[in-house]
Design a protein that fits this description.
The complex is a heterodimer of chains A (about 120) and B (about 110). By secondary structure, chain A is mainly beta. Chain A is built from no helices and eleven strands. In chain A, strands 2, 4, 5, 6, 9, 10 and 11 form a seven-stranded mixed sheet that branches. Chain A has a four-stranded antiparallel sheet with strand order 1-3-8-7, with no helix packed on it. In chain B, a hairpin with a 4-residue loop joins strand 6 and strand 7. The relative contact order of chain B is 0.33. The chains are: A mainly beta (about 120), B mainly beta (about 110). At the A-B interface, strand 5 and strand 10 of A face strand 4, strand 8 and strand 9 of B.
């Protein structure tokens, strides 16, 4: 059974870079039918797509975050990662990683999510 | 930018039927598949409908999805409401630039 697990610091200072990693188990990140994505949810608010990556390294980013976001993949470790630079309090959120079924645009599997707080 | 608009909240009584709408801002919502996710407090979203009207295994047939091209909207209908259906529901689709989009979410209250 596919599982995704987010990991990384729960507290980041303003203006610094938020870094998270998603470890995939029970399946290969190199599967041809899937992209891998990051989604976030500020406290009490809705879901926001951040970006998605293919195992080859091809990426798509939310235009509203594109200037600050980098998503990368490490197929040898079955992981993909998120970096969000110049963070502010507005970036405080639960960050989810998910597997995206490409043809249908469907986020099929989700990690449990990790809360990242931006505060000095 | 492509956007999906949902009502902020809906409420209905147990045993009744409720419909949650999701309206696309531009283009045809029928051009790309729409998914619906259920999210309970403190948990990750789970799929209740994918590919416009398909239910994953384990989702009861009380949940159904549809597309109305005339209003450029998708709908999630839940019949025979149960208190356990109380949750937030999000629609999701994507645009021609491979940008994935979520609706703002609808809080369903079963009272």
């Amino acid at each position: 059974q596919l599982q995704l697990q987010e990991s990384g610091p729960g507290l980041v200072k303003p203006s610094e870079t938020l870094s998270l990693t998603c470890t995939v188990s029970g399946g290969s990140i190199s599967s041809s039918s899937y992209y891998w994505g990051w989604i976030r949810q500020p406290p009490g608010k809705g879901l926001e797509w951040i970006g998605s990556i293919y195992y080859s390294g091809s990426t798509y980013y939310n235009p509203s975050l594109k200037s600050r976001v980098t998503i990368s993949v490490d197929t040898s470790k079955n992981q993909f990662s998120l970096k969000l630079s110049s963070v502010t309090a507005a970036d405080t959120a639960v960050y989810y990683c998910a597997r995206l079924e490409w043809l249908r645009g469907h986020f099929e599997n989700w990690g449990q999510g990790t809360l990242v707080t931006v505060s000095s | 930018n492509f956007m999906l608009t949902q009502p902020h909240s809906v409420s209905e009584s147990p045993g009744k039927t409720v419909t949650i709408s999701c309206t696309g801002s531009s283009g045809s919502i029928a051009s790309n598949y729409v998914q619906w996710y259920q999210q309970r407090p403190g948990s990750a979203p789970t799929t209740v409908i994918y590919e416009d009207n398909q239910r994953p295994s384990g989702v009861p047939d009380r949940f159904s999805g549809s597309i109305d091209s005339s209003s450029n909207s998708a709908s999630l209908t839940i019949s025979g409401l149960k208190t356990e259906d109380e949750a937030d529901y999000y629609c999701q689709s994507y645009d021609s630039s491979n940008h994935w989009v979520f609706g703002g979410g609808t809080q369903l209250t079963v009272l």
